[in-house]
Amino acid sequence: GDSVTQMEGPVTLSEEACLTINCTYTATGYPSLFWYVQYPGEGLQLLLKATKADDKGSNKGFEATYRKETTSFHLEKGSVQVSDSAVYFCALKSQAGTALIFGKGTTLSVSS
Amino acid sequence: DTAVSQTPKYLVTQMGNDKSIKCEQNLGHDTMYWYKQDSKKFLKIMFSYNNKELIINETVPNRFSPKSPDKAHLNLHINSLELGDSAVYFCASSQAGTGIHEQYFGPGTRLTVT
Q1: What is d(CA B110, CA B102) in angstroms, rounded to the nearest whole number?
Q2: Averaged pLDDT in 10-residue chunks for chain B of 114 residues
Q3: How many Å apart are CA B31 and CA A94, to the nearest integer?
Q4: For residue A4, is pLDDT > 90?
Q5: Which pLDDT value is given to residue A102?
Q6: Residue of A nearest to B100 (CA)
Q7: How far is CA B4 from CA B46, B100, B108, in A?
Q8: Which helix (DSSP H) or strand (DSSP E) does residue B45 occupy?
Q9: Which residues pair with B6 in a beta bridge?
Q10: Closest to A49 (Cβ–Cβ): which among B55, B56, B102?
């Protein structure tokens, strides 16, 4: 079945460091891909999305490109801030399905 | 102007009790979901309703019963609570037919069963 694999955390960075969180997926057809962020004690917020190959989603300095050839959707940010500390989830929605399938989440901790 | 709201935010109860969690969305969406987040933060779909009709019912104990009185509401009733039911339950909504199914999540209900 469809699945999402994220890099294990936690990821610990200093402020202004570069961030990459790897995400790969297994799905038939052309799924839609998402990154969600969960700040401590809160619900999930959609961070960015991409719906077809080579689409680049971006928001708040974060970017991810839908790579069909490598079945990947890595999350990147050039300069992280303390306020970016959160849990990041990669997710997909298959063409035929309705619900989101989530990766296990990656905890990011940024220190000043 | 909360888009997806859930009540209560916290729920502490004893084994064997019956409890309900309520969810409401004011986005005009026609599809609503319940997800369970376990202690390791793993999120998994439990149920989905489209226009008040059940469309997804994952392998969930039949002690869990969702009810959708209208398109804007999806409640979750849990009978005979067990320790393993302790988790954070998230409600979400989306608009079918957009092809993207961008989902909006509520703040979650942290259920603790003692």
Answers
A1: 24
A2: 90 97 95 93 91 82 92 95 96 80 91 97
A3: 16
A4: yes
A5: 95
A6: A32
A7: 17, 18, 10
A8: strand B43-50
A9: B23
A10: B102
Q: Do A99 and B56 touch (CB under 8 A)?
A: yes
Among A3, A32, A37, A100, which would you mutate to test the B interface (most chain B Cβ atoms within 10 Å of its Cβ)? A100
Burial of B80 (0-12, 13-18, 19+ CB in 10 A): exposed
Nearest Cα neighbor of A50 from A90, A7, A20, A86 is A90
**φ, ψ (nearest 5 deg) of residue A31:** -75, 160
Beta strands in chain A (DSSP E): 3-6, 11-14, 19-21, 23-26, 32-38, 44-50, 56-59, 62-65, 75-77, 86-93, 101-102, 106-111
Structure tokens that stand for A31 in this block: 């799924």
Q: Are the C-beta atoms of residues B90 and B35 closer than 8 Å to each other?
A: yes
Distance CA B84, CA B38 (A): 9
Count how many residues are written for chain B. 114
